[in-house]
Amino acid sequence: MLLRNKLQQLTSFDTEQRAMIAKKPIFGERHGTGSSRNSHSTHPRDALAPYAFPISYFVLPRETNSGSGHIDSCYSYINHRAQKLLLEPSALFYKEKVVRSIVWAMRVSPIAKPRHNNLDDGGSFSLLATSLRHQTTEFFNNSTLHGVRYIAEKDRPFCEKFMWFSFTAVGAVATCIIIVSLWEKFQTNPTITGLDTDFHNWDVPFPAVTICDMEPVDEELIQEYIEKTWGSSAPTDAASMLRWLTTLSYHSIAEHVHKFINDQDLMDEKRIPNTKDAVFSIVSHCESLFYDCEWKGESEECCDVMVPVFTEMGFCYAFNSKHAERAWPWQSQSQSEQFNEAFIHETDAKWSFVYNSYRNETVMDVSMKKDTDLKIGPTVRNVTAQSVHGGGLCRVCLTYRQKRESNGNDGVMTVYIHSTEEMAGLELSPQHSWDRRVEKVAFSVKHTYTTEDARQLSVRQRRCVFPDEHRLETSPYYTYSACMRQCRMRLSRSFCDCVPHFYPPIEGYRQCMLRELACIARHVQAITDVTRCDCELGCTHTVYEVEKLTEFDATKTAGGGLPTSLETEFVSWPMVRYKREVLFGWVDLLVSFGGIAGLFLGFSLLSGVEMIYYFTLRAWCAAVRDADTLRRERAERRARPKPPHDLSLVPWWRRPPVPRSSRPLVVRERDRPPKYSPPPGYTVFLP
């Protein structure tokens, strides 16, 4: 190595640098002569300097244990390379004495040990590669994986190595396939839904019943509001616009806003500064719609249990709803602003809610002539009950009959049966449109809850959100309808910087004025697009389905009139509920992976740690602490002769891959030239 470095130094100078070599000693003083130097001796520097060539012309041989053999190999190889360069060998180096003097000077001179991190050494990356190669061999020889050690053993025949390699490869492929399938199942369907029959300890909540009148306005209140707002110069479409506000929804906004937007007097913000207050001023009050309510067979005051609520379908009244209004202008002192959820028990006499409606009685057997004279039909038994509301029988009958003729709704009410946490809106369809031909609606309940261990899964995996997992602005607990409602509010605010009045007042969301509803109409498709909302079902949700409708039997009543009441009840006591629980958790997944890997490969968790240790920590420490050993190993590997290769087309199972030629086999070693003996004339001194 030292000879190689010095020859590289001596042969890498250009023409200008050769002159500097003679002025400064390279190898130090000769042996045993003190500080004086023999001027008649020929220094190797003086012999080599005039004929220096770049070291790239010569690939010097590696060191050997014998100094004489080293010199001979250097001398022969230099002449051999010179012949290939078409140069005269005697013109390059003086003779054998020159080379011998170089070696002698290197032995006796105090030359510093060369650094290992040079071009020949390859640097730390080369040592790390050698260390990784060594650790790979060690890992295969000492691995705990089944069959791996038989592949790496040198004395094993090829057939046995190939057999064990095939078995190990098949096991590894099967392990990967099964693990990937388990991972996909864990990501897509890690939960299972089953029946929970432990129903005796349940507190079964009664659903919320939302009743939306197709014509919720009170004509008397409309006339009073028009006179109060516009006086005697009221616009022609004032009444129609006010009715439109009471049934305001995204559909009605897009369909009817163009009828009123161009009327400056109607859209005057000074006259109607708050649309929600305007709706409260003209809708029918609870006492003018409902009477004789019953809850679980006991009589209840209707206006204490039926409270107003603004929905995305218009103004409604709701029973047992958490999202109903907590304050309104005609609220009585007996009505509490605090919500108390209603439950039923198995021992209750009834599991139902009953209400009677005035609206359905007043439209019966009432007609109107052209000259506004009233004609009352033969069945007037229920009309007298209406006279206590609205200031007289004829006036009230005329009001409701006019609405019936103008819209043709005949007092139809849509009935929504839903969970108390939910709210009637675009996500829910009405269970029934009550046209007074049905007196009883029986429904069933499907309640689904999720166990707490499902929290370890992501929302995408379990496909549901726990009530306290995501904080919403529209509700203190998460539900699908609340999430969608908040999404539409955000879209409405982003497009028009306001929201319609049927949404609850929330900080940061301004209520739209009348003119701004035109902007809502322009973007109604984008606002109601469900693909813009990233909402999941709630982990606890309840679905109510109508199972039975009992039609009214007119023959059982005197006069054959239509029913005035509607009863909503459970079809039967809920016997089961659905439970969603984890099928594959993280621990189950780890056990499954370990079982499959152990079955096919004998793999364990410590085997993985061992693999990481061999190829990271151990390889790096060996490259740092055992660098000399790795260099010797690398040198031995490079000096090892390459195995002979049989390039014949005879299969190996018919003839072993060993050359059978009678010609001698020439083995060439890496970085070592072939043996070469120079002619005798090359040892003569140059003149």
UniProtKB/TrEMBL annotation:
Q: Where in the cell is it found?
A: Membrane
**Keywords tagged on the record:** Ion channel, Ion transport, Membrane, Sodium, Sodium channel, Sodium transport, Transmembrane, Transmembrane helix, Transport
This protein's membrane topology, according to the annotation, is: Multi-pass membrane protein
Give the record's family classification: Belongs to the amiloride-sensitive sodium channel (TC 1.A.6) family.
Its source organism is Eumeta variegata (Bagworm moth)
**By its UniProt entry, which InterPro entries does this protein fall under?**
ENaC
Q: What is this protein called?
A: Sodium channel protein Nach
Q: Could you tell me which residues belong to the region Disordered?
A: 24-45, 650-687
Q: Which gene carries the instructions for this protein?
A: Nach
According to its UniProt record, where is this protein mainly located?
A: membrane
- Transmembrane residue ranges: 162-183, 583-606
A cellular component term, taken from the record's GO annotations:
plasma membrane
